[in-house]
Each structure stands twice: as structure tokens, then as C-alpha cells.
């Protein structure tokens, strides 16, 4: 799954021979869109906790 996702979405992966002969591409806009994807923008302002309620339960002083 990771290989397929990387092949279809990564701007540095070129599958056709014509694209591979182009050499190094300077496509900054495409790279920025790849790096700043929708999931990353969504979780940027969220706390890095998987289960906040469980963390709060075990961190309380009883």
C-alpha cells in the first residue's frame, strides 16, 4: 500500500520513460502540495494524543 501511494502521489516518482529522462525537476508548487497535504493540515493544531480520555484517567491523582 505504501509503495502504491508513494508512486501515485510523490512528485519525485516518475513512472514513464519520458518523465524519467527529464532529469531533476524544479516543481516547488507540487512538492509543497505533497508536503502540506489535507491530513497534515487537519492534525497540525490537534494535541499529539491518541486517546486523550485514557491519558486523563491515568494521569489524575486519586
Protein described:
With 62 residues, the protein is an all-alpha fold. It is 55% helix and 0% strand. It is built from 5 helices and no strands. The protein has helices spanning 2-9, 17-20, 28-35, 38-43, 52-59. The termini are far apart. Pfam families: B12D (PF06522). InterPro entries: B12D.
Instruction: Please outline the major beta sheet.
Output: none
Helix percent band:
40-55%
Which residues sit in consecutive blocks of at least 5 with pLDDT less than 50?
Answer: none
Mean pLDDT: 78
Q: Give the class from helix and strand content and strand pairing.
A: mainly alpha
Structure annotation, total helices: 5
Please give the radius of gyration in angstroms. Answer: 20 Å
Binned strand content: under 5%
Instruction: Count every beta strand, where a strand is a DSSP E run of 2 or more residues.
Output: 0
Q: Which of globular, elongated, flat, extended, rod-shaped describes the shape?
A: elongated
| Distance linking N and C termini | 45 Å
How many domain regions? 1
| Order of helical and strand elements | HHHHH
Amino acid at each position: 500500500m505504501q509503495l502504491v501511494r508513494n508512486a501515485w502521489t510523490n512528485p519525485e516518482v516518475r513512472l514513464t520513460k519520458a518523465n524519467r529522462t527529464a532529469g531533476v525537476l524544479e516543481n516547488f508548487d507540487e512538492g509543497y502540495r505533497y508536503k502540506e497535504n489535507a491530513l497534515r493540515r487537519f492534525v497540525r493544531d490537534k494535541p499529539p494524543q491518541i486517546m486523550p480520555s485514557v491519558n486523563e484517567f491515568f494521569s489524575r491523582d486519586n
